[in-house]
């Protein structure tokens, strides 16, 4: 062996030793426990250590709502986007409680807390189920993007249905209760139950059609701090809310998700918010998109501006450009670290970074979901939301014995209307027609005749029996257990009747078909018996192409729950039309409803003939979440993209009601809506008027219980019902003057806080423990409330405040409320303590709400209307 061979062998042996050492070192490193894995450390310490292990690319990947896994560090996939507006939404079967605007009518923070405690139980139980299935998709996580606490400053705003009304105090009270219920306030658990999110920050309440470009400007400082901000401050300071969502619009020229004034100076520095700021979905893209704000050059500039302003998490994909922003020097990695630390900390606190068996909340099982207990709570909430606005000659409650009644109107038998928006799918729904029928032992005494539609003067009549395929009646369908219809179908069916398919409650579309990631193809030949305009009625959650004779006429991919579609088609008698639907699962519950027929013109006189034997008419009208809501693609008379252009009841309903009035039969009008309707004309021709809101799965029972005296109504209006739209300023004007009970200078149709009961409550004199108090002292106020009737009932005792020398300020401000139960003939003493929070008033010189000397007028009573209040003057020195 020569020297060269000897050296070569030495090098080989050295390399082998080196590789061996590296191998053992890698084993040691793999077995090493990082500090973030040590469960004895605080969540903050663990988050700090984990942050240090991440590459900058990994950090950025965690800053988007769909966060991908980082397997080398044991970080699971996580989707931050989940909804629970009034029940767990878009994730299968869940209890559907009344829409928030309806819950606001209860004026009861304890009830709202109990509702959201139940919601959080169902949300955790659902999450536990998804985790066991290995699923980490949207609507399956623990971060709920609710509640909506924007002020409903204008009844034309479509998303007002998601709010708690027009008053800053009531919104704060109920918003804090919702957050505490969701987050498990008061528990001694190691991990948080859920995280709630206050949205949309700030000064955001429409219009929907231009929200991606709208600039809320010239906002008076008083309006900002007195109206638009208090609920957000309360949720941060009192509710300890863990997330805040910044809004789409601009405020004084800056997009809210890039506003240093809102997010850094106010939210974080002044209020001390430590949690996560998340963008509304696509809001960062609005910074640079054409036809949006266009305040920034591109995605990198927009994203860096949002991060530097305090937006930690993006719902969208613009934050992918943060790597470019780093390279361009628009921000530094330490700026990203601030946001990522908050995101990691939240995930540790939720127990999402640890094994499920270590988290106490995993003991919540699926038996909680849509349980009997939660259904009973949904009924209680619905009952207490029902607001009686008129009761001429005490026609209500009605004794059903011996009566024949007619149930009419477009909302009488519509379960989907009752669900509101941002909803789950209930195990069952009691429509208002169902509720009234259930109140009668003999259903022949209940005549149902819809009579008219919501807006159009048409009714739908099915022609499904004109559909055939392969010489069989109905629709043929093929299913694949993949999203692209690859390979042979897993199963085939023939559907011989109009169908409503939904995967809620783990119910498959057909035997053998998966709950997710499936596709389908529906086909039929429609041979109309008459010529005219046919209507294809669809309700869809998923990806869908509707084809007529091989041509795509409608394409849809839902992203915010199911969509209702009415596709019109001119047909000729005897001609054949091939109708095909390509469907694929997308997200949440898959859903597909189908029917085909004709929208025939309403015949009011024919409908009246059908109810001629009725003694009384229950007309269930109003509008629907299919007309009012978030940025909708609907433009109809009175409606624009989810907003309203006026506040009138649709004309077709008014016309029909006038025809019904001419019969001389008493009309009980039941209004379903998410905001105020101008009901003056309807009140004139009706014996009673009930506001039922969107009452959830048990709404029909709740309405019937009020109609027939099983429940004494106790709801109060959380919004002003104006006489007409001319009573309020322009929709795009954010100045509060002329809006809501606080700044409306004329008489409304029904005032804020108003609602009748079957009891008769009388208020005594207001007593104060001192006539004068020094700044910083509390004042104790008491009043006796007597139930001077033979019916037990709830009363909503409301306390309002007015600074006597503030002539340009609000008429009065709600500062306290107590819900009391008073037995027939009995009295209850109600006490309030007015401290620093209750006595704050706007001060121009200080530029904020502070306690200040002066005369204050305290009003206590059953509504905000002066005639419903008793008054007492107190002096602060």
Automatic annotation (TrEMBL):
The keyword Hydrolase applies. Its EC number is 3.2.1.37. The keyword Signal applies. Signal peptide: none annotated. Belongs to the glycosyl hydrolase 3 family. NCBIfam families: xylosidase_Xyl3A (NF041776). PANTHER family: BETA-D-XYLOSIDASE 5-RELATED, SUGAR HYDROLASE-RELATED. This is Xylan 1,4-beta-xylosidase. The lineage of its organism: Bacteria, Pseudomonadati, Bacteroidota, Flavobacteriia, Flavobacteriales. The gene is xyl3A.
């Amino acid at each position: 062996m020569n020297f060269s061979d000897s050296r070569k062998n030495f090098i080989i042996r050295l390399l082998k030793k080196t590789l061996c050492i590296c191998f053992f070192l890698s084993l040691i490193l793999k077995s090493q426990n990082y500090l973030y894995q040590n469960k004895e450390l605080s969540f903050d310490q663990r988050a700090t250590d984990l942050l240090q292990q991440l590459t900058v690319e990994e950090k950025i990947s965690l800053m988007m709502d769909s966060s991908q896994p980082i397997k080398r560090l044991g970080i699971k996939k996580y989707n931050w986007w989940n909804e629970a507006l009034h029940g767990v939404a878009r994730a299968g079967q869940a209890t559907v409680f009344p829409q928030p605007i309806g819950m606001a009518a209860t004026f009861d923070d304890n009830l709202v807390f109990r509702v959201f405690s139940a919601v959080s139980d169902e949300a955790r139980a659902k999450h536990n189920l998804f985790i066991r299935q290995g699923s980490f998709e949207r609507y399956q996580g623990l971060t709920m993007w609710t509640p909506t606490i924007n002020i409903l400053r204008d009844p034309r705003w479509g998303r007002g249905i998601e709010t708690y009304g027009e008053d800053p105090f009531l919104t704060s009270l109920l918003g804090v209760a919702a957050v505490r219920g969701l987050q498990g306030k008061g528990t001694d658990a190691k991990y948080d139950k859920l995280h709630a999110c206050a949205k949309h920050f700030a000064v955001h309440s429409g219009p929907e059609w231009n929200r991606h470009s709208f600039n809320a400007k010239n906002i008076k400082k008083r309006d900002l701090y007195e109206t638009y901000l208090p609920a957000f401050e309360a949720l941060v300071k009192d509710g300890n809310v863990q997330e805040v969502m910044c809004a789409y619009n601009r405020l004084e020229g800056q997009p809210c998700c890039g506003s240093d004034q809102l997010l850094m100076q106010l939210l974080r520095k002044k209020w001390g918010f430590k949690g996560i700021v998340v963008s509304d979905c696509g809001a960062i893209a609005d910074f640079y998109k054409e036809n949006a704000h266009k305040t920034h050059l591109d995605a990198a500039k927009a994203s860096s501006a949002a991060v530097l302003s305090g937006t930690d998490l993006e719902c969208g994909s613009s934050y992918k450009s943060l790597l470019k922003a780093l390279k361009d020097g628009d921000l530094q990695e330490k700026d990203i670290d601030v946001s990522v630390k908050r995101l990691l900390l939240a995930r540790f606190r939720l127990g999402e970074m640890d094994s499920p068996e270590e988290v106490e909340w995993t003991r919540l099982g699926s038996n909680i979901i849509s349980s009997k207990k939660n259904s009973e709570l949904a009924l209680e909430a619905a009952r207490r939301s029902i607001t009686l606005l008129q009761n001429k000659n005490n026609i209500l409650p009605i004794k059903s014995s011996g009566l024949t009644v007619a149930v009419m109107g477009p909302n009488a038998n519509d379960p989907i209307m009752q669900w509101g928006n941002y909803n789950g799918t209930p195990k069952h729904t009691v429509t208002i027609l169902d509720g009234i029928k259930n109140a009668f032992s003999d259903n022949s005494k209940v005549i149902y005749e819809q009579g008219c539609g919501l807006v159009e003067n048409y009714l739908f009549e099915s022609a499904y029996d004109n559909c055939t395929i392969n010489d069989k009646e109905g629709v043929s369908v093929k299913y694949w257990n993949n999203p692209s219809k690859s390979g042979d179908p897993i199963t085939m069916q023939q559907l011989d009747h109009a169908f409503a398919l939904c995967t809620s409650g783990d119910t498959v579309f057909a035997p053998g078909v998966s709950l997710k990631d499936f596709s389908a193809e529906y086909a039929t030949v429609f041979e109309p018996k008459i010529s005219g305009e046919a209507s294809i009625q669809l309700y869809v959650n998923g990806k869908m192409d509707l084809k007529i004779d091989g041509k795509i006429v409608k394409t849809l991919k839902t992203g915010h729950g199911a969509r209702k579609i009415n596709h019109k088609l001119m047909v000729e008698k005897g001609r054949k039309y091939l109708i095909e639907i390509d469907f694929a699962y997308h997200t949440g519950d898959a859903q597909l409803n189908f029917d085909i027929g004709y929208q025939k013109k309403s015949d009011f006189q024919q409908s009246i003939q059908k109810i001629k034997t009725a003694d009384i008419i229950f007309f269930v009208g109003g509008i629907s979440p299919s007309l009012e809501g978030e940025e909708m693609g609907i433009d109809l008379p009175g409606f624009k993209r989810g907003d309203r252009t006026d506040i009138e009841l649709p004309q077709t309903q008014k016309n029909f009601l006038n025809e019904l009035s001419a019969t001389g039969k008493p009309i009980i009008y039941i209004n379903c809506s998410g905001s105020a309707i101008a009901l003056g004309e309807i009140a004139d021709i009706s014996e009673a008027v009930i506001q039922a809101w969107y009452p959830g799965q048990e709404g029909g029972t709740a309405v019937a219980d009020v109609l027939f005296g099983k429940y004494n109504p106790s709801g109060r209006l959380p919004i002003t019902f104006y006489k007409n739209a001319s009573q309020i300023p322009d929709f795009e004007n954010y100045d509060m003057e002329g809006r809501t009970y606080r700044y409306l200078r004329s008489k409304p149709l029904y005032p804020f806080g108003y609602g009748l009961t079957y009891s008769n409550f009388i208020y005594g004199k207001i007593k104060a423990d001192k006539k004068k108090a020094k700044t910083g002292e509390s004042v104790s106020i008491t009043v006796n409330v007597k139930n001077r009737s033979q019916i037990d009932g709830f009363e909503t005792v409301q306390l309002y405040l007015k600074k006597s020398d503030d002539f340009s300020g609000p008429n009065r401000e709600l500062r306290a409320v107590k819900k009391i139960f008073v037995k027939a003939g009995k009295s209850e003493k109600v006490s309030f303590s007015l401290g620093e929070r209750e006595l704050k008033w706007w001060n121009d010189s200080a530029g904020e709400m502070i306690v200040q000397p002066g005369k204050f007028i305290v009003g206590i009573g059953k509504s905000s209307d002066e005639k419903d209040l008793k008054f007492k003057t107190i002096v602060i020195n």
